[in-house]
Specification:
- By secondary structure, this protein is mainly α.
- The chain is built from 21 helices and 2 strands.
- Strand 1 and strand 2 form a beta hairpin.
- The chain is globular.
Length: about 475
């Protein structure tokens, strides 16, 4: 104790003699020398106790290197420094651009230099506004027109449209074909040509055909509305009233039959009246009942050349029946090929056609009558109507239509049916023209003592009062 007291006193006296900082350092060193060795174990235990109380560990010291830690009431909350953003690579930017939607903007043309920028921009804006207004007006007009088309509205008949409507009501193209075949029958008759009788017969036949076609459309309005081929007919669209259609048919039929009966001869007038009845009262309703309507319709088409023959001769001869037979056979490849491409339409309209219910029979009948035309052409010189050059000259066109009929029978497709149909359109006028050129003259028959001259005299007596 004495030695310790003496040393401490010496240290204190030495500290007083030195400056204050040096004195503090001397005291700290002296304190370590005296208590360092003895108190090292106690300090280590105390340090561990403090470490346990304050959660100080080895990992805690390492963690302090990269973040700050603040302790409030033994609850650990930490705040880390935000990590600096790494420099993005150009490849990532390219991938992002590929993934994003690309929007291409149209570069507007640069305005001229001499014009001020404000004026140019104002003009461009005015142009854009005008174009946008015009576009909106056009869209509004189209919408209004579509709404008007969808709504039911009354059709107003104008006098300027009436001739075209009546022409479609009477099927003017079909009427022209009927008049041409009647004219061919008149020209083939072995009698001198009478122009007055020819004009009266042609006019009466045309009026009778217009009446028959108008009545046919009057009966078939509900069925024609279901077919694409006939949905634009005047009665279906309401362009003309049914009463006006019936009045038009009557105004054509009555004068036509009267003209044929009184101006030509009663036999031709009777054939015209019978043909109107057959077409309107037999063929038209049979179209929805039986496939026999095709044969009845062929008879209707075969009567006009017979009417032309009877108008010239006043009698039914073998030549008239031959011409009727040619027209009868020609109609089967013509109509069967046409109906083959309209099977869907006829099904929707409710018509019973061979092409719909009996497709095999439709093709066989067409081929059969194509071959029949060759035989009928050979019969013409036998009946002394034409020379023997007619079957020879007509053989190529008859063989060609027979070949197309065979293709239609074998392939049974739209392509073959269309070819056969279009061939029939030029085949008939070509055949009748060749037949007329090969016709035997009236003088040759008089030299042979043919009794047709007497029949012609009787026909003239019937026509004259």
């Amino acid at each position: 104790m004495g030695e310790g007291g003496g040393s401490s006193a010496a240290a204190m006296s030495a500290a007083r003699r030195c400056s204050p900082p040096r004195a503090l350092a001397g005291l700290f060193v002296w304190h370590l020398k005296n208590t360092g060795i003895r108190q090292i174990p106690c300090q280590f235990v105390h340090l561990c106790h403090v470490a346990n109380n304050r959660l100080i560990t080895f990992q805690y010291f390492n963690f302090l290197k990269r973040m700050y830690v603040t302790q409030y009431n033994k609850d650990l909350s930490q705040r880390a420094k935000p990590k600096s953003d790494s420099v993005a690579s150009p490849f990532c930017d390219i991938q992002r651009l590929d993934q994003e939607k690309k929007v291409i903007h149209k570069i507007r043309p640069i305005s001229p230099v001499h014009q001020p920028l404000s004026k140019t921009s104002n003009r461009n804006e005015l142009r854009e506004m005008k174009s946008a207004a015009e576009t909106e007006d056009s869209v509004t007009r189209v919408r209004a027109e579509s709404k008007d088309d969808r709504q039911w509205k009354e059709m107003k008949l104008q006098l300027d449209d009436l001739p075209g409507i009546l022409a479609r009501l009477s099927k003017i193209k079909l009427t022209a074909l009927v008049v041409s075949t009647a004219s061919a029958g008149f020209a083939m008759a072995p009698v001198p040509f009478d122009p007055t009788c020819f004009l009266l017969a042609s006019l009466g036949t045309g009026l009778a055909s217009c009446a028959a076609n108008s009545i046919n459309q009057f009966f078939e309005v509900p069925f024609d509305s279901n077919m694409n081929r006939t949905k634009n007919r005047p009665l279906v669209r309401g362009q003309i009233s049914p009463l006006l259609a019936v009045c038009f048919a009557a105004s054509c039929g009555v004068p036509g039959i009267a003209l044929l009966t009184l101006g030509v001869n009663p036999l031709t007038g009777a054939l015209g009246a019978f043909n109107i009845f057959l077409y309107t009262c037999c063929y038209t309703p049979m179209k929805r009942m039986s496939i026999a309507n095709t044969w009845v319709g062929a008879v209707v088409g075969a009567i006009p050349p017979v009417m032309g023959w009877t108008a010239a001769t006043g009698s039914l001869d073998a030549g008239a029946l031959l011409l009727g037979g040619i027209l009868y056979s020609w109609q089967f490849p013509h109509f069967n090929a046409l109906s083959w491409g309209l099977r869907e339409d006829y099904s929707r309209g409710g018509y019973c056609m061979m092409s719909v219910t009996h497709p095999g029979l439709c093709r066989r009948v067409a081929l059969r009558h194509c071959l029949a035309l060759i035989g009928l052409s050979t019969v013409a010189p036998v009946l002394d109507i034409t020379t023997w050059t007619f079957p020879v000259i007509s053989l190529p066109i008859n063989l060609y239509i027979s070949y197309l009929g065979f293709r239609f029978y074998r392939d049974a497709d739209r392509s073959s049916s269309r070819k056969l149909f279009f061939c029939s359109l030029w085949h008939l006028p070509m055949l009748l023209l060749v037949m007329f050129t090969c016709k035997k003259s009236f003088l040759e028959k008089e030299d042979k003592g043919d009794p047709l001259g007497e029949s012609h005299g009787r026909a003239m007596e019937i026509r004259l009062p």
